[in-house]
Write a structure and sequence with these properties.
By secondary structure, the protein is α/β, with parallel strands linked by helices. It has 9 helices and 14 strands. The protein has one domain: Divalent-metal-dependent TIM barrel enzymes (TIM Barrel, Alpha-Beta Barrel). An 8-stranded parallel beta sheet has the order 5-2-1-12-9-8-7-6.
């Protein structure tokens, strides 16, 4: 088995709206990758061709690469026509190609009633059908879809995420593990319970933690078992991204904010947990 190697990335829009400020701070923190969710206050899906060229010029100037597009695909009603999201994925594929990545973060759709997740099991098959359609399109476009667990989404718990991934064994769909999001749906032992089920399909990791009351924390400060997750990844020879998504100042519906100081703190805490678990930063 190859030795593990971890590359830190970050959601730059958690630092500032201005892209150059995002990249300047990442340079200061020694982080060479950006998960691009928004630039200049514009979501990545809504960037024009001219905007994308500006993004690429800024990335080149700061010597930073894009680890993934933090897209909103799948943060949409399950009952909406899936072809709407297929069209969005096609546009994101164009942007990804220009910015030098294949990775597109996606979600598994809002069920009709999000007041409680007690009934979400009945929506898993429809979510699988919609995600299968997106995965077929990703194969055509040679994209890798990163399916993130998220509260309020059909794929919120370990069990439902496992059902979805088991039903879609394509190499164009992988799992983006978010420890905090599991905690926020009541799964405070997600790593212990979920690693045997989700570990083999985990190809990307978002780094934020949370306490059982739902408050978002930096890595190692909550109940997300971040150290245990990194230990499993290390033992499995993981060679991939740890993307900082701290949400330390604002944990919003579709984004978050930490500011430069918050991102610096989040990076420090992640590196501390990495050192404690013997994870080598590339």
């Amino acid at each position: 088995m190859a030795s593990a190697e971890f590359t830190i990335s970050a959601f730059g829009d958690e630092i500032a709206a201005d892209l150059d400020e995002q990249l300047r701070v990442l340079n200061e923190l020694g982080i060479g990758y950006l998960e691009l969710r928004a630039a200049w206050g514009v979501n990545v899906l809504r960037l024009s061709d001219a905007d994308v060229e500006r993004v690429q010029a800024s990335l080149t100037a700061h010597n930073i690469s894009v680890s993934a597009l933090g897209s909103p695909v799948g943060k949409s009603p399950l009952l909406d026509p899936i072809e709407n999201e297929v069209a969005n994925l096609q546009r994101l594929g164009q942007i990804a190609q220009r910015l030098g990545t294949r990775n597109i973060r996606i979600f598994s759709f809002y069920p009709p009633d999000t007041s409680s997740n007690a009934h979400y099991d009945q929506h898993v098959e429809q979510a699988i059908a919609s995600l299968s359609r997106l995965t077929e399109e990703a194969e055509k476009l040679d994209l890798l879809l990163l399916l993130e667990n998220e509260k309020g989404i059909v794929g919120d718990t370990v069990a439902r995420c496992q059902r979805i991934l088991h039903a879609i064994p394509s190499p164009h769909l992988t799992f983006a593990w978010d420890p905090a999001n599991f905690v926020q749906v009541g799964e405070t032992r997600a790593t212990d319970d979920g690693w045997p089920l989700l570990g083999p399909r985990t190809g990307y990791v978002h780094i934020k933690d949370a306490t059982s009351d739902g408050k978002v924390k930096a890595a190692g400060e909550g109940d997300g078992q971040v150290a245990a997750l990194l230990t499993h990844l290390n033992a499995a020879g993981y060679r991939g991204i740890l993307a900082l998504e701290p949400h330390l100042a604002i944990a919003g519906h579709s984004s978050g904010f930490s500011g430069p100081e918050g991102m610096a703190y989040a990076a420090q805490k992640l590196r501390e947990v990495m050192a404690q678990t013997g994870c080598q930063e590339s």
